[in-house]
Structure formats: structure tokens, C-alpha cells
Design goal:
This protein is mostly beta strands. Strand 15 and strand 16 form a beta hairpin. The longest helix is centred in the last third of the chain and has 14 residues. It is globular and about 65 Å long. 49% of the residues are buried. Pfam families: TAXi_C, TAXi_N. This is Basic 7s globulin. InterPro entries: Aspartic_peptidase_A1 (IPR001461), PEPTIDASE_A1 (IPR033121), Peptidase_aspartic_dom_sf (IPR021109), TAXi_C (IPR032799), TAXi_N (IPR032861), Xylanase_inhibitor_I-like (IPR033868). One of its GO terms (biological process) is proteolysis.
Amino acid sequence: MAFSSYYLMLICSLLLSISSCIGQTSFQPKALLLPVTKDSSTLQYITQISQRTPLVPIKLTIHLGGQTLWVDCEDGYVSSTYRPARCGSAQCTLAKVNTCGDCNTTPRIGCSNNACYNTPENPFIKTLYDGGEITEDVLSVQSTDGSNPGKFVNIPSFIFTCVPTFLTEGLASGVKGTVGLGRNDIALPSQLAQVFSFPRKFAICLSSSTKSSGVIFFGDGPHMMLPNIDVSKNLIFTPLITNPFGTGSVPFLNESSSEYFIGVKSIRVNGKPVPINKKLLSIDKRGNGGTKISTGSPYTILETSMYDAVTKVFIEELSNVTKVAAVAPFETCFSSKDIGSTRVGPAVPAIDLVLQSKQVYWRIFGANSMVEISQDVICLGFVNGGVKPTTSIVVGGYQLEDNLLQFDLPRSTLGFSSSLLFRQTTCANFNFTSKA
């Protein structure tokens, strides 16, 4: 009987109708959420998810373009519901992996015989592990009506990847893995949508504060922030572009990237076009170039010639402000006393990432472009990425803060708000204290 039930579940997984086979509770949420905090030391964005039987809360770092949720199974992983994915199983098919093998030591959690394996990535130390065991266990996530947090719901057979402890190097203190939100079938957004039959979309709203939580929503809106503002309204939309090659720390050239690319066509500073090599804005036949959005980088990274061109125009437009010595990792810094303030941050020239037309652009105001170093020094929060990087522009975490970004996977579109400060709210204003 147990044998039949197990293989029935595998068949259902393959057909993407997991919820009908695992006896999911009658409560079907319309959306789910994760609270997200910013770690002050690493500048990583951290969430907490309960996993295993009995449930254990674990801290995980958000990896926007990550292919999988991966967890350290070497250090104290104990669960009565842990199940490795066997070679040829529906879980392996869903994960699009063909690598199978046996444990070269005594079998244990994270190292099983006749199991399939993938290659999870830690983007913060630019390391891949070619031996992550595909497995499944209970996962618990909180529901929401878009305005308030609601009940926790359990996913009895959530597919994730087991890794050894060394892969957690470089993660924030106490963090046991990463949450992949990428464009593939075993990333968190896709699995949640499959289980609960809501739209395969999610929205991130990262707080700029290390003391207040931002939020990630899974499913449809509304996405309400105090004082009663639906920040999912009035978004600007642009296509998501598929990079045909993997673009992680160590690129895979035989599969498309799970990361999120957008089609930046030009850059403006204070409304003035920046002279840049337009070829760098396109993705070439090897997957190089283009613009991606990443929480794996704390600040936006620009290819060297782009960085030089943008900072040259920025300095010219800020000619009345005293330039001061660079402060690593930033090369372009100014005296704070010469810069005023506005409701969208320091009074500096806006930087526009111009998208499919001149009328469609992502505007970066002072709150997202300038980093306060001290009482006297403020720096442009863009980093020189060197010559011939894999990706020409990487829009980093600092530039995403207090912006709502909505990723619609079936439609392959990104909706973005630009700074929520203009709407007199922030990403720290979701009401986590009241229950739906």
C-alpha cells in the first residue's frame, strides 16, 4: 500500500497536480508571503521558512535568480518526512536533471543511493556544488489576503536540494541555505503556484532598513502597504528576456538562464543620454551582455566603459558639489554638505534605465542611487564591474529597495513601481502584526 501511494504521488508531481494527490488541507490560500529582512553585515536579504517533521524554522538568503531552495543537510538535519528523489522519478524530471548516482560513503540524509543530483549555486562566494541531492520534505509558508498575514499552510512534498555545510560559506550568520526564485519548475514561485493553483507570479518589496521587514508575495495582488496603499497598482511593465545560456557564478552553456533579464536600451542621467556602446546592452550568442536583476549583488554593477560614461555625466550634472576621495567599493563620492534632500532621497540627478521605448523607463532617484558613508561623505551606489563581465548591467539589491517588482512568469513580464517614496509609503509598511 505504501509503495502504491508513493508512486501515485510521483506521477502526480510529474503532471504538476501535486495538491490533488497529497491530501492538502481544504483551506486554499489565494496568495502566500515571506517576510524579508536585510542583514547589516552582509547586506543579504534574509527570510525564515519552517521545514521538516517536526517543523524547524530555518533562515535562508533570497537568491532572486536561483534555481532551487537549497539547505545544509550536513549540520543537524533531522526529519521523519525526508525523502530523496530516486533516479528516473518525477521529481528528477521536474528538476530537469539526469545525473544519478550512489553515495560514496555510508548513506545518510543528503547522500543517498540511486538518487538524482543537481548543481546548486552560492552566488555570494561564486561557487557551485556538483552533487546537490534532489529531495523533498514538508515546507510551511504563511498565507495572506494581500493586506494581512493569515494561516500557515503546509506542503508535504516540497522539492529542494540538500548540500554540505561548506556551501553556506559567505552567507549571513545563522543562515542555512538560499531560496531560489528563478525561472524554473522547482524554484519556490513555481512550486507554490502548482500546489495551490494560483497564478505563477510573485512580487518582491525589499526594505531599505535593517530593522524593519520587507515582503515577498506569491500569487495575485492586492499588495497593500500602510496607509492602505495597493502598491501593485499603476505599475510600469516591460518584457522579461530569456538568456539562452546559464549566467550563474560558473555559467552553464547548455541550458537557459533561470535569472531575470530586462531589455535596457539606453541610460539617461538627469534626462541626458549617456554615450555607451549599445552592443553591450544586447545578449550575444554566448549569453554575454544584457541587463539582469539580482539580489546576489548588494549594488548595481556596470561594465567599465558604461560605468565611466555614466559617472562622467553624473559628475557633470552635479558640478556644484565637491567630489571627495573614493570609498571602496565605490569610486564616485561627494561631500554630503553640498547635497540637499527630497522625499525620494538626496537631491541628485535621476538615473533612468530606458526600456522598450523612451517613454518606458525605470527611474532611480537619490534614495536608491546614493549611499551614505558618513556624516560628511556620500557615494554613488554603483560599482565598476570591469572589462568583459558576463553581464553588462547587474541591477543590485540597493537599487531594488522600496520598489515593488512583480514577476509574471507565464506572461514573461516585469512590473515595477520605481520608488514607493513618491507614493508616501515604503516596503517596510506591510502590516505583519494583524492576522487575516
